[in-house]
Amino acid sequence: MTNAEYIKSLERHGAKVLIDGTFVPVTVEVYSRACRKLRKEDASVIIYKLQIPEAENEEMLMAIWADGFLDTGMAENIVTCVEYRRLTNDQIIWRN
User: Fold this and answer.
1) For the chain, what is the domain count?
2) Could you tell me where the beta strands, DSSP code E, fall in the chain?
3) Which of 17, 26, 43, 81 has its CA 20 to 30 A from that of 36?
């Protein structure tokens, strides 16, 4: 599945990410802006709080990596991936 297909799937499931204090739908434009921000700030990953109606009782995150990879999942799992890569705080952009 391509990132565009994955994003469309997230859209169909009503997924939203927290940006500047407001939950907004996950769209290709949100993904594209995140990729531009990663390049501009020379960061490795940008991480958003994620809401999906089917998982409303779970703490979820969406991570977009500098190589374009899109990852969603339980917060614990996303944080584990970040820790595994031994990223420093200046390599991580937390959006909220």
Assistant:
1) 1
2) 16-19, 22-25, 45-51, 60-65, 70-74, 92-95
3) 81
